[in-house]
Specification:
The complex is a heterodimer. Chain A is mostly helical. Chain A has 29 helices and twelve strands. The longest helix of chain B is centred in the C-terminal third of the chain and has 31 residues. Classes of the chains: A mainly alpha, B mainly alpha.
Chain lengths: 844, 102
């Protein structure tokens, strides 16, 4: 260990570079040479890249943990966080402000990112292992692993970034990989569209993140998390957001009192917009259900365990900014709670197994935001961890089930439809066991990890309050935490219900896949077994998946079951919370527990157990005891409601009609404008003009010499006229005029020219002289009139007038009468309204 | 100097104008050639008239020699062109030399 510490000191921790490099190399090799390497080679490369990275992460984590003890023991000084940093290079410097802001490519490991990187590489490795078997029949095998490795690299960049700029690089990188992986089978229009939708919705959120970064650079002058944390109190200023200073607005848009907001509120809300996009909260969640078009391991890795949690990671990282704004925290918690409930309601009516899990993910992300929004950063992030385990396991189980179903029913939609499943616990025991464990975890069965994390989140939502020392900031009302709690409880009951609904439909009862549901045969192009219609098809029963797929399931299920013991407050096991305490110490100073709330911890625990009992019990009752009759009765009793819920509350259609419709309409308008205006008018007009002028000029091309000779004669005559007539022009030395006021006019020379000068309207002198220079003096802003008469050799004369003005830079020559009257009249107008400028009238 | 200089200049200008107008307006190629000769001769007259005005500077007479030589050469070449054109078109009208028409 000491050797390692010597090799990698904590402020130049180049091991980080290795951790990041391995997946990148894996992606590069697989991407470029994948075809030549063959399946074995690709698999080895990808697994070793991620596996190696995981091992290095373990080593780094061990160094982080032991380093903390050492430093505390040795120096006795309190470090706010043990950190292993590595500054790779200076990226660029932002100049132009009060002081230049340097941006480095720097990475660091602290307790938060340390745990997260273990999850990313660990779960990532398990999913790579899983995919090596799941995707083995896919022709794009090497491409898949290249993208998957690239994703792990980007995610590591995101969480290990030491400043927001590097985080943003990782943020965009995971967005890109998400697009590539969701649209992996891009040959099908729907899947490519799903990838596009994910990326574009993410980008809308990224706009918020960029705005937040810009604001932070402006107000804090830095993007490094450690620097921001130290100076976070300096951000506490108010800012007028409407009317914007410096903007000229018509009178009706100006409010009587300017609207002000505190800078942390603005920054936090902007950051949260980014989180809304990346972590699929209302209203930008629409991409996640569509993202199920990608392969199931992708859904497990990206949309359960890692990418979607980037939003919560961002909030946890910038927790010290969020707590400065109770309003933003309330928004975060509120949006999270609403999303949790909303998505849970949609999951009730879904028949596609992956869609149920997708909406469940959106819902659980809502819980995580409830956690961090209530000031319980450790609890919220703990839910991230447990969610990675149980949701990852659930998705991989779903993949296993779909894989088995696909062998029986070759139709893709049918193999994911829960109405075709049933009774699979007999055929797939390991998948069944792990799915059940994860279901228990997500529903909050007591003692599972999901129970502890969700309960902790809900308790903290109930009990916490964000305080602030700033005057005039909006603070959440007393009942807000309890309202969030109530919504959360409702959502949890729904979660338990629909998850167990999925469980019972898939694994209990008899296997229904022998009869293909009518809509599943819609897309049946080929027919190797020659069946159409609803006749039962005979085939092999669904079988268990190979070890590469069941081993990750077992590992994840183990953590889903026992992972809660690192942070089980009711059992007084709070190792994780203490480990993370330095990271959230600054933020925790603003979070207080409401009076008397601590006593409620035990009763709320029973509420948590009751949630599980009620939800799963109801699901058992409806789907096992009553064979789904109550559900069918509900559907027939309220078909309209059922349709709307099944159609995801028609949110996508709403977006399509309004926002996307707007862009479609704009596109149509632009096409029409291009066709009619630009092609029709402008292009034809210019070509028409050229044609006409050309036709006119062509008349000269008669081919007859005499016509050409006539042209020559005309030309000579013209030149002769110009040369033989006198020209009167003069040049002024402008710079000398402005500086000293001395005006020197130098007339243009000519053969035998004689000059006569006169000032104003005075008569010309009698004689023509050969002095081409005339000097006079001008005061500031004074205009004079000067006349010049020129005579050439043949006696022809011409005269011209000059009115030079000594411009002093403030437009004084343009207003000839402004000298005395303008200055005095300006002052009354200036005191009227500071933000309003009335147009100046000439009559003043 | 019994004859003032402007007599020569006016005569030369009249001859030049005649030649120029003839060149621009007549259609017979041979007449065109003759108009060119007329213009050249007018220029010659102007040159020697100015030489008469400034006898010490012989440039007028010398240049006049050059002009005569060039006029002779140009007449020869021009006639050759007219002959070639006649062989091609069978006529000496300048209207018919329109091969370069657009």
């Amino acid at each position: 260990m000491e050797q390692l510490r010597l090799q990698f000191p904590s402020d130049d921790f180049t091991l980080l570079g290795l951790i990041l490099l391995l997946p990148l190399v894996g992606a590069f090799v697989n991407g470029v040479f994948g075809k030549r390497l063959g399946k074995q080679g690709v698999r080895t490369m990808a697994l070793s890249a991620v596996g190696g990275s995981f091992l290095l992460c373990l080593i780094a984590f061990a160094m982080l943990v032991s380093g903390g003890h050492g430093e505390h023991g040795g120096h006795g000084a309190a470090h706010t966080a043990t950190r292993l940093t590595w500054n790779a290079w200076r990226w660029f410097t932002i100049d132009g402000g009060t002081s230049p802001v340097p941006l480095d490519v720097a990475f660091s490991i602290d307790p938060l990112s340390g745990v997260m990187m273990l999850v990313v590489t660990g779960v990532g490795f398990l999913i790579h292992l899983y995919s090596s078997s799941y995707m083995s029949e896919d022709p794009g095998y090497y491409r898949f692993f290249a993208y998957l490795n690239l994703f792990v690299f980007s995610m590591l960049v995101l969480i290990l970034g030491d400043n927001l700029a590097v985080l943003f690089v990782g943020w965009e990188g995971v967005g890109l990989c998400s697009y590539l992986l969701i649209g992996f089978w891009f040959g099908e229009e729907k899947k490519a569209a799903a990838g596009k939708k994910a990326f574009i919705t993410n980008r809308i959120g990224d706009f918020g993140l960029l705005v937040a970064m810009a604001m932070l650079i402006y107000y804090a002058g830095t993007l490094r998390f450690s620097s921001l944390e130290e100076s976070h109190a300096a951000l506490n200023q108010m800012r007028t957001i409407w009317p914007l200073p410096g903007l000229e607005l018509p009178a009706f848009l100006i409010p009587s009192q300017p609207i002000r907001a505190s800078v942390p509120t603005l920054v936090a809300l902007a950051l949260f917009i980014g989180c809304m996009g990346k972590s699929a909260q209302l209203p930008l969640y629409v991409w996640l259900p569509d993202a199920m078009a990608g392969p199931t391991p992708v859904s497990a890795l990206i949309h359960a365990a890692t990418m979607v949690t980037a939003g919560i990671y961002l909030v946890a990282r910038t927790s010290f900014i969020f707590v400065l704004s109770p309003f933003a925290m309330a928004v975060v918690a509120g949006v999270g709670a609403l999303t949790a409930l909303f998505a849970a309601s949609i999951a009730f009516a879904q028949t596609d197994l992956k869609k149920v899990l997708a909406y469940s993910t959106v819902s659980q992300l809502g819980y995580m935001f409830v956690g961090v929004g209530s000031g319980a950063f450790a609890a919220g992030f703990f839910h991230v961890l447990t969610h990675a385990f149980f949701k990852g396991c659930l998705f991989l189980c779903a993949g296993s089930v779909i894989h088995a179903m696909h062998h029986v029913i070759h139709d893709e939609e049918g193999s994911q439809d829960m109405r075709n499943m049933g009774g699979l616990r007999k055929h797939m025991p390991i998948t069944h066991a792990t799915f059940l464990v994860s279901c228990l975890a997500i529903a909050g069965c007591p003692m599972t990890s999901g129970f502890f994390s969700k309960d902790e989140v809900l308790f903290k939502a109930f009990a916490s309050q964000i305080t602030t020392t700033q005057k005039g900031l909006w603070v959440a009302p007393e009942w807000y935490g309890q309202a969030i709690y109530a919504i959360g409880v409702l959502g949890a009951i729904c979660t338990a219900f629909y998850m167990f609904r999925a469980y019972f439909l898939t694994f209990w009862g008899d296997f229904r896949g022998w009869k293909i549901v009518k809509r599943a045969k819609k897309a049946h192009g080929h027919a190797p077994h020659g069946h159409h219609g609803t006749e039962p098809l005979e085939g092999e029963a669904p079988h268990e998946s190979p070890w590469q797929m069941t081993l990750p399931l077992a590992v994840l299920a183990f953590f889903a079951l026992f992972g809660g013991l690192v942070y089980a407050e009711p059992l007084h096991l709070t190792a994780l919370e203490r480990f993370w305490h330095p990271v959230f110490a600054t933020a925790s100073t603003h979070v207080v527990e409401r009076a008397g709330a601590h006593a409620m911890m035990m009763p709320l625990l029973f509420v948590g157990a009751a949630i599980f009992a009620v939800g799963s019990g109801a699901a058992y009752f409806v789907y096992v005891v009553k064979q789904g009759q109550p559900a069918a009765a509900f559907v027939s009793a309220m078909p309209g409601l059922h349709r709307i819920v099944r159609d995801k509350w028609r949110v996508d259609e709403f977006y399509e009609a309004t926002i996307l419709g707007f862009f479609h309409a704009m596109g149509e308008t632009d096409v029409a404008m291009d066709k009619w205006l630009i092609d029709g008018v402008i292009a034809r007009l210019t070509s028409g003009i050229v044609q006409v002028v050309g036709a006119l000029l062509r008349l000269l091309h008669t081919g007859r010499v005499q016509v050409y000779a006539a042209g020559m004669v005309l030309g000579v005559a013209g030149i002769g006229w110009f040369v033989l007539s006198p020209h009167a022009t003069a040049e002024v030395d402008g710079a000398k005029l402005r500086s000293t006021g001395e005006l020197t006019l130098t007339a243009a020379p000519g053969h035998g020219y004689g000059y006569r000068w006169a000032e104003g309207d005075k008569p010309m002198p009698a004689e023509f002289t050969s002095t081409a220079v005339f000097t006079t003096k001008l005061e500031r802003c004074e205009t004079k009139k000067l006349r010049l008469e020129v005579r050439n050799v043949f006696g022809a004369t011409t005269e011209t007038t000059f009115t030079p003005c000594r411009e002093m830079g403030n437009d004084c020559c343009a207003r000839p009468t402004a000298a005395a009257s303008g200055g005095a009249a300006q002052t009354p107008a200036a005191s009227a309204a500071p933000t309003l400028r009335l147009p100046t009238e000439g009559s003043r | 100097m019994t004859v003032p200089i402007h007599y020569f200049l006016v005569l030369a200008a009249a001859l030049f104008a005649t030649g120029a107008v003839g060149f621009l307006l007549r259609r017979n190629l041979l007449v065109l050639l003759m108009s060119i000769e007329l213009m050249l001769n007018a220029v010659n007259l102007t040159l020697v008239a100015f030489n008469r005005l400034h006898p010490a500077n012989h440039a007028g007479q010398i240049l006049s020699f050059f002009v005569i030589a060039i006029a002779a050469a140009e007449a020869a070449v021009g006639l050759a062109i007219v002959l070639a054109f006649f062989r091609l078109r069978g006529s000496v009208r300048s209207d018919e030399a329109t091969a370069l028409k657009n």
